[in-house]
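Q: What changes when zinc ion is included in the input?
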Amino acid sequence: MGNCFKTPSTDDISLLRGHDNQDGAEQALGPPPPYQERVPVYHPSPNVSRLANQLSEEEQIKIAKRLGLISHLPVGVYDGSSKKGKECVICMNEFILGESLRFLPCMHTYHRDCIDDWLMRSFTCPSCMEPVDAALLSTYETN
Amino acid sequence: MRLIWSSGYVELKLNKNPVEGFSAGLVDDDDIFKWEVMIYGPQDTPYEGGYFKAHLNFPKEYPQKPPKMIFMSPMWHPNIGEDGNVCISILHEPGDDKYGYETAAERWLPVHTVETILLSVISMLADPNDESPANVDAAKMWREEPAEFRRRITQCVRKSQDDL
Ligand SMILES: [Zn+2]
Ligand SMILES: [Zn+2]
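A: The predicted holo structure follows.
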């Protein structure tokens, strides 16, 4: 209650990367930072970001389960067909031929990198707010 | 990355989806992660006539993570901390934490934009939420001493006009 302004204002991700906000502008003009070149950073809960090798066992299990669920969601490559939507509403860029896409059970489509990052934070479709795990479970039941 | 400031980025977005009630720019031309916005106090509220300055600080992970919003102009509102920090659900990260009573749909989603954030803030000004006040004294005054509450806001409105 009323503790909003006590939220830590520093972002521990930036501490981990050894960056400060000063270099933000130059990065922003290019593509998002290439996470895959570093030890992956995970978000076991809000405002908590850890390098993969610093996670507790419990957090590792939680993340492994989430990664497992995400891997069940269909992926594909943008082939220009408009049925799949034309734009990724997360990065606001139009799909380009050959880009990796991920399809959610609610039929919303995003760049694979954009939505996978989000699903690690919240297992909800950002467009319709449909919980993705519930949809997955009901798919399993009907099969 | 969608946080690209080119000349008239905001103008372009606003023309596509006309929204009244605010204007936006960069705090410093070299840093697109810090925006300065001006919010016009909504009509038929005690904030009417005010020009309230606020900063939006975007994390590098935007839009995966929400920005923080801080009023630079003095404000008096249950959901704005005395340090100016705006406390509304859509600026809260998703997940299981102390804001557990909020649903995923109420919290930050990566489809939010500067416009949707500012629209939420404008509606917050018109319609305070005293379930989780960031300013407990303002929340108490809003409930118990509405006349005094309005008087405090009128002071903020005057100050914001003087600062223009
Ligand atoms: Zn995308
Ligand atoms: Zn959806």
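Observations recorded in class: Chain A touches chain B at residues 1-5, 9, 11, 13-14, 19, 21, 24-25, 27-33, 43, 45-47, 89-93, 114, 117-118, 121-122, 124, 126-127, 129, 131 (CB under 8 Å).
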